[in-house]
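One thing: can you check what follows?
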Amino acid sequence: MPRLHAPETRWFDDFAIGETFYIPSRTMTDALFAAFQLASGDNDPIHYDIEFCKERGHPAMLAHGLQVFIQTAAGAGNFPQQTADSLVALLSFSGEMHHPLYAGDTAYPGLEIVKLTPQRTTGIIEMRAIVLNQHDQLIMEGTHRYLVKKIQPVDDESL
């Protein structure tokens, strides 16, 4: 019986430059800040002490840089479902911060294919990762690179 919870697998050759992948928006709540602080161990008061932040000219608590970057996690969108049987690995990721993201802001992440590098049995999908805020300011921009299998050719002798 086919899986009903995921679309048919796409292989490296099924993707095209310019394709985008939806990732739901998320409002940065105090609870998310606390959870990230607990998970990361980052105890800089700029991320949890509102008075400390205000004394330094920030209107609210400042999101951790990695907390911003993880908003672009492909697993939060539909890319992993499309590559359920073809995704081999996340090869690398990078990011650059452009503006702060504060508690109360809403992050609007997205992924767009910018490069396809075919190999013998696999290919590398490179995606531009962005996070905008509710004012359409570019908060973070970066890159994800994924190794994806090519579809296996049918062996004519086995037919």
Notes: The mean pLDDT is 92. The CA atoms of residues 108 and 136 lie 8 Å apart. The first strand starts at residue 20 and ends at 22. The chain is about 15% helix and 35% strand.
